[in-house]
């Protein structure tokens, strides 16, 4: 009887299957981290595209032959061309442009301000977010570019 009790204790105190339990605990955390890396990579890429599109639009707006006050479509067409080149549909983003005075410590100057807004879905984290009550939704991205409008010298 004593030998049977020792065998039972040895069997219960063994570490067989501990790796399987540890893997079952760590795998969901690892998968969420991988999904977050993919989603934040796409998020950063789209933020860079929006930033560059806003820069292209404000560059167009500060040229002497164009206006940045929203009355012409030149700036918006330049932003649309850049966004289309990056693979965005025309209705998936919003372009705002103004020509307002900007006040800084150095003084006041006229500037072309172009803002591009995108709503970025989080597709991979959204799958895991269903288990946590929809914690991971869409992320709004906004990129703004301000370029100084130079006054033309009289001929």
Task: Please describe the structure with a list of short key phrases separated by commas or semicolons.
alpha+beta; rod-shaped; about 160 residues
Descriptive report:
- This protein is α+β, with helices and mostly antiparallel strands and about 160 residues long.
- It has helices at about 1-15, 20-60, 75-85, 125-130, and strands at about 95-105, 105-120, 140-150.
- A three-stranded antiparallel sheet has the order 1-2-3, with helices on one face.
- A hairpin with a 2-residue loop joins strand 1 (about 95-105) and strand 2.
- Helix 2 (about 20-60) runs antiparallel to helix 3 (about 75-85) and helix 2 (about 20-60) packs across helix 4.
- It starts with a helix and ends in a 7-residue tail after the last strand.
- The model has no long low-confidence stretch (mean pLDDT about 80).
Order of helices and strands: HHHEEHE
The low-pLDDT segments are: none
Largest sheet: 3 strands, antiparallel
Roughly what is the average pLDDT, rounded to an integer? 81
Strand segment count = 3
Radius of gyration (CA) equals: 28 Å
Describe the structure in brief.
With 155 residues, the chain is an alpha+beta fold. The chain is built from 4 helices and 3 strands, in the order αααββαβ.
Task: Give the secondary structure arrangement, pairings included.
Layout: H1 2-13, H2 18-61, H3 74-85, E1 93-104, E2 107-120, H4 123-129, E3 139-148
């Amino acid at each position: 009887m004593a030998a049977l009790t020792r065998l039972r204790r040895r069997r219960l105190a063994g570490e067989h299957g501990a790796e399987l339990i540890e893997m079952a605990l760590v795998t969901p955390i690892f998968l969420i981290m991988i999904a977050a890396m993919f989603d934040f990579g796409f998020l950063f890429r789209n933020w860079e595209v929006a930033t560059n599109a806003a820069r292209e639009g404000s560059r167009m707006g500060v040229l002497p032959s164009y206006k940045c006050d929203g009355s012409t479509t030149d700036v918006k067409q330049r932003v649309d061309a850049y966004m289309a080149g990056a693979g965005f549909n025309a209705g998936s983003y919003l372009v705002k442009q103004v020509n307002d005075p900007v006040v800084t410590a150095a003084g006041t100057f006229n500037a072309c301000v172009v803002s591009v807004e995108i709503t970025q879905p989080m597709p991979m984290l959204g799958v895991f977010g269903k288990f946590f009550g929809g914690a991971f939704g869409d992320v709004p991205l906004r990129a703004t570019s301000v370029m100084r409008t130079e006054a033309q010298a009289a001929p």
